[in-house]
Protein: Elongation of fatty acids protein 3-like
Amino acid sequence: MIENLRYYLSERPSIVNFRWSHSQSWGNTWSFLFTSIAAYIIFSLFLHLLLLLLFRHRRPLSLGPIPAVHSLSMVLISLTIFTGILFSAAAEIRDTRWFWRRYKTTPFQWLLCFPLGTRPSGRVFFWSYIFYLSRFLHTLRTFFTILQRRKLSVFQLFNNSILIFMSFLWLEFSQSFQVLAILLTTLSYFIVYGYRFWTAIGLPSACFPFVASCQIVLLGCNVVCHVGVLLLHFMKRGGCNGIGAWVFNSVLNAAILFLLLNFYVRMHLGNRKVKTPENLDSAKSKDI
Structure:
């Protein structure tokens, strides 16, 4: 069973011969990238304003099992991408180990730092491409939030747009560190969407901000790995491939981490304020 799984996820000709190009890959142009992000933001704003104008005094719309189905789908997609890129990375290490010995490169260094001249083709980049496409499915949660809660989160719009943009850069510039980034991110999504499915079907939720905590842990791991990439870039002869895109990626990650920490601290302070005796009555009235 493991061998069959390894074949379908890392050894099929369509995976081995994958190439990020205009003829073989859908959605790989800069025009598509900017158009899709702009359409996502504009439609989110339009839907939010439309509901405020037409259905201002109505209760939030119930979507039934749709959010739960979406969460379960993202769990399965994240698990598939995690397993696929794990098998593919192992296959790439096996097939190119002889080449790395000439440059004194270890498998762990390769995970952080691609050699100069790396092209966006092969097994690993196939799953990077699937991961890039899956980013668009994540944006559906924005519309669920608008329909269910009548709220539009600026952070959610910014975060989803930046993540789509970064995934595109990984492929366009064969950026280093993307293998570990995809492994960490899909593992985090597997846990987060599993929790969302758990709560969507009516099971009890955690007593702390579970999703925000997972996102902070993920970004913290990314920061540690980014430090490793920077050290390897200056230590290795020739440096790491796609370092320009990596610098831009690091800046965007830092911005997301800052916004998330700010949101986390404000939410924590807000909860503490609500729990004080003088604000308890007003908090209850707001909840009602």
User: Anything to note?
Assistant: The chain has one domain: 7-13+35-49+64-272.
